[in-house]
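[step 3/7] fold_predict: job queued, chain A
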Amino acid sequence: MDRRAAIKNIGVSFGSITLSSGVLSIIQSCQTNDLNWTPKFFTAKRIGFMDRMLEIIIPETDTPGAISLNLSKFIDAYTYRNISSKNQTELNQEIDEFMNFILNNENKKLIDEIDDIKLEKYLSNHLDSDEFTESNGKNYSEICSLLRQMGVNAYKLTEYVMTNKLGYVPIPGYYDGNVDV
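[step 4/7] structure written:
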């Protein structure tokens, strides 16, 4: 399986999230503010990078942003439990390659040294452009669109969005069978 197919498989699996009991337990575990949380799948460096990229995609406005909603925790738990190990390896390689490319272009050693405006430039260049290639001849549009897809899907599954924006009620309300049509 090549990288393109692996990333598409990850995207398809993330896109076909159903509210099974496993996904609901992941959602509930991501809502707690555990200061001692350690990632199960991604490294702390990758989580920091994903946090910043997801915050660019879903910023904090009058509604909570990606960092406030702990989207990277959900993505970490979901990837750890539901993506095959071969696809997990491909995903890590793609994220590392994109991070290293950004670090080399900016002549920095840590991703925290790069400001959000420059990260947004890299993200927007690749997000919806299959023709855009960097100086190394690579196109990172697949990993950028996968980050966006994972972030948006995780955002739609948070408790805040489900209850405040989508009107989700976990227990059906009052039923009256004698209603005029």
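[step 5/7] annotate
The chain has one domain: 3-165.
Residues 37 and 73 are 9 Å apart (CA to CA).
exit 0
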